[in-house]
């Protein structure tokens, strides 16, 4: 490979290291072309599976500021550059490796830090983005329903209280200030004697 081509490849790999959500390094020796095609299809659009020379990958990792990758760059190495759901992609690699023992997970990179094979497999045990979003939506729905019930309870209680008060007021208007009819003014003997009885319209 000519020097300009090497430089372009290193730059491409370095950019992939930098822009990926995570990278998983695997050994693929023993896998057929058909196996590799099946692996790429199983990863879907969330990840890209690419083979690269170890020397170029080491230079690219160094340019991207990632340390510790060089130790795993022994033998044929392929890189899974994950752009989407990390848990989903690593689960796909783990399950494929179980069915195809020639695929060996060697390590990975997450947030610029190198991970050993055990740490990568732990990523596969995490819940996928879809599951987490579903749980979050369920929790939010439950919280909203609880909040709505809390707000509705005082309103319902207030309505019942108002209904009871209205019924009581119908029986005894005096329990509500200003409600009902005021008692008619009584005419005393003294008023009749002095002629101070108010006119009928004023008395009412």
Automatic annotation (TrEMBL):
GO terms for biological process: translation. It comes from the Bacteria. One of its GO terms (molecular function) is large ribosomal subunit rRNA binding. GO terms for cellular component: ribonucleoprotein complex; ribosome. InterPro entries: Ribosomal_uL10, Ribosomal_uL10-like_sf, Ribosomal_uL10_bac, Ribosomal_uL10_bac_type. Residues 174-185 have a biased composition (Low complexity). Keywords: Ribonucleoprotein, Ribosomal protein, RNA-binding, rRNA-binding. The keyword Aminoacyl-tRNA synthetase does not apply. Residues 174-204 are annotated as: Disordered. Part of the ribosomal stalk of the 50S ribosomal subunit. The N-terminus interacts with L11 and the large rRNA to form the base of the stalk. The C-terminus forms an elongated spine to which L12 dimers bind in a sequential fashion forming a multimeric L10(L12)X complex. Forms part of the ribosomal stalk, playing a central role in the interaction of the ribosome with GTP-bound translation factors. NCBIfam families: PRK00099.1-1. Belongs to the universal ribosomal protein uL10 family. This is Large ribosomal subunit protein uL10. The lineage of its organism: Bacteria, Bacillati, Actinomycetota, Actinomycetes, Propionibacteriales.
């Amino acid at each position: 490979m000519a020097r300009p081509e090497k430089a372009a490849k290193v730059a491409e790999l370095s950019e992939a290291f930098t822009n990926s959500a995570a990278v998983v390094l695997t050994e693929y020796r023993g896998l057929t072309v058909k196996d590799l095609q099946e692996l790429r299809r199983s990863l879907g659009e969330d990840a890209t599976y690419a083979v690269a020379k170890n020397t170029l990958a080491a230079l690219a990792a160094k340019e991207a500021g990632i340390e510790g990758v060089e130790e795993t760059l022994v033998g044929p190495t392929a890189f899974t550059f994950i752009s989407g759901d990390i848990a989903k992609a690593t689960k796909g690699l783990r399950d494929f490796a179980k069915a195809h023992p020639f695929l060996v997970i060697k390590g990975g990179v997450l947030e610029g830090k190198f991970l050993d094979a055990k740490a990568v497999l732990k990523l596969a045990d995490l819940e996928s983005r879809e599951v987490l979003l579903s749980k979050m939506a369920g929790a939010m729905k439950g919280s909203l329903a609880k909040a709505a019930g809390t707000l509705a309870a005082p309103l319902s209680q207030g309505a019942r209280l108002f209904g009871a008060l209205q019924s009581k007021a119908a029986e005894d208007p005096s329990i509500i200030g200003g409600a009902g009819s005021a008692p008619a003014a009584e005419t005393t003997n003294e008023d009749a004697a002095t002629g101070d009885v108010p006119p009928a319209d004023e008395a009412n």
